[in-house]
UniProtKB/TrEMBL annotation:
The keyword Protein transport does not apply. Its EC number is 3.4.19.3. It comes from Sphenodon punctatus (Tuatara). Monomer. This is Pyroglutamyl-peptidase I. Transmembrane segments: none annotated.
Amino acid sequence: MDKPRRPVVVTGFGPFGEHAVNASWIAVQELEKLGLGDDVDLYVYEIPVEYQTVQRLIPALWKKHSPQLVVHVGLSGMATTITLEKCGHNVGYKGLDNCRFCPGSQCCVEGGPECIDSIIDMDTVCKRVSTLGLDVTVTISKDAGRYLCDFTYYTSLYQSHGRSAFVHVPPLGKPYTAEQLGRSLQAIIEEMLHVLDHSEGQINCRHEH
């Protein structure tokens, strides 16, 4: 019997600051070429580095695709590894976006929890991907940086009750090529879907803390 097709949305970010080319969007385009296997419908989007657009776009993507999983990919100028972010934060957004805007409340969702964890066990994903022999290093983080990456992640986690993930990539060539980033994303997201399948029966209200 054919497995039902699973919608998965993956986003990267557009240019900002000194990053005229955003490695996250390049990586997502590489992933799109590779695909996620026959039973996954992959939808990719480039997100502008704008708070208000994020607040409008994330709910729209959930509504449009009812995805099994949304994975946001972002660029960290400081990163030298591919980093899986465990949680998104609600408060502390002071950095101006590409429109020179930042939320007056400096938070994503007024009255929302301080921090929301992904329901995906990033430690498990990290361990599994690290055994695949990809020529990249994958690490874990609990701080997505209180800028558009963290803001997007929290907004998405809030919207999806934790059914979102965030992956930070380093700038292109520092040290990884676009192709390496794309292949790594493919492996990471396949593992995330695997972990999600196995945890579906055990999901409780972990995101309510």
